[in-house]
Amino acid sequence: MHSIGPYQFVKFLSVGTSGRVFECRNMTTGEIVACKVVDLGNIMNEDFFPHFKNELIIHSQIRHPGITQLKDVLVDQNNIYVILELCNGGDLNDLVMDCGGLPEARARHYFRHIMGAISYIHNLGVAHRDIKLENILVSHQDYAKLTDFGLCKQASSDSPMMRTTCGTLVYAAPEIIREEPYNGMLADIWSAGVVLYAMVSNHFPWVTDPNLPPDRMIAETARQITEGDITLPNGTYELQDLIASMLTVDPADRPTADDVMQHPWMELDEDYTDGNSTDPDPQLVQLVKSVIEDLEKRRLMKLGHV
What residues form the catalytic site here (predicted)? Predict the structure, then answer.
């Protein structure tokens, strides 16, 4: 059985745009973890490397029960191995589709975890910028956890506005589609509102004719988003009020993550207790810094700058 450092590969789990994911066992502690294997050739790619570097650095500096935990990073001649907390309950997209939509109580259970994580990173000045059902995993303890920080961005202290168009169309805020400078945190709120809508209804807020050509479908979806042309899902008044506030076209009128956490719909779950964040592991932060420096040197050597 293949292994890297103390981690023995147990089975293949999935493949994504950035690499393959395996279930592994830490042979020292017995802990079962996830290992994302990324080809060094891809990392050296000029378009991919900045996102990967950004993801590792920020992920090493955050620790919250609503965020998949980065545990370790290893490198050999061919790959980089990113060791993560294993969430074997799948992602919310599959869960919502399998259930045909979630009852409000169950949606609230997960959404409090999600918004707790978003509130945490926003208070650190970090916007996720790719919040969607596929980027929310469920642990064996039925805890929803935000993952995939490849597009996240630290807002500067003097200006929170961003210009890079990113994310997925159906989750994109109107200001992003209009290609305006935008506040990444308020764009996250819009995306989280789309997530909540989809969780309770099993479909997105945007309705298009499936017989339209792809370019027409995209244009019609973009129109509905920029005009705020939505029909609220069936549900309680509190649910509809929260979704309407998060899917407000003018970002200045959207609630903050902390506001969402205090919304009456969120407080209906009396048994919920907010998870506490903990301080980052300084050894992990230093390890990631060293790995990034090593990768930078390899890139320069490949480009012939050294």
Answer: 130 (proton acceptor)
Q: Is 79 annotated as a binding residue?
A: no
The reply to whether 297 sits in an annotated binding site is no
DSSP conformation class of 91: B
Same domain, 143 and 165: yes
Length of the chain: 306
Dihedral sign (CA 144, 149, 155, 156): positive
Under 8 Å between Cβ of 131 and 168 = no
Q: What's the whole-model pTM score?
A: 0.89
Q: Say what the alpha-carbon torsion angle 290, 292, 295, 297 is, to the nearest 10 degrees.
A: -70
Q: Report d(CA 41, CA 90) in Å as an integer.
A: 28
Residues 79 and 97 in one domain: no
Q: Is 135 annotated as a binding residue?
A: yes
Count Cβ atoms below 10 Å from residue 283 Cβ, excluding itself: 10
Confidence (pLDDT) at 36: 94
pLDDT at 12: 92
Same-domain status, 19 and 157: no
Angle at 8 between CA 7 and CA 14, to 5 degrees: 95
